[in-house]
Amino acid sequence: MRKLVAATALVSGLALAGCQTVALPSLNLNTAVALNTVYGIENAYGVAVNAANAYKALPLCRTGTVPGAANICARRSVIERLQAAMFKARLAVNNLVALQKAYPSVDITNALSAAQSALIAVQQILASGVR
User: Could you read off the pLDDT tens digit of each residue along the chain, which spans 131 residues?
Assistant: First the structure.
């Protein structure tokens, strides 16, 4: 009797397994490219935060001096501009990430260019602080 029940279960399992169709996963290349771009922007923002923090950690330049190889210091005016630019960059990157997560199939070109522009502004301010 046990052999009959086991054989019936085996045959029914095989019959049911034959009815199942397994769909292959589909890959939307536009979404994958957009996600990679968003991850790249997030990473660039992380690098900008680290660079800004490193610049702000430098001692302030004395009045009348300029930063250079012999005088490593941070200008107060650059720090103020950097803080404003980092605030804008944080908002732009957060908006980009939120848009991509909420609407993965929507074109994110405008939000992407806003985040890139904000990060470029931070980069330019940091470069001006070195000169």
Answer: 555 444 455 445 444 444 444 444 444 445 555 677 888 889 999 999 998 999 899 898 888 777 777 888 888 888 999 999 999 999 999 999 998 888 887 888 888 889 999 999 999 988 887 76
> Distance between CA atoms of 31 and 124, rounded to whole angstroms?
30
Distance CA 106, CA 34 (A): 10
What's the pTM?
0.68
Number of continuous H segments (helices) and E segments (strands) in the chain: 4, 0
The rounded Cα 31 to chain-centroid distance in angstroms is 15
DSSP string, 64-96: T----SSS--B-HHHHHHHHHHHHHHHHHHHHH
Residue 60, beta-bridge partner list: 74
SS3 112: helix
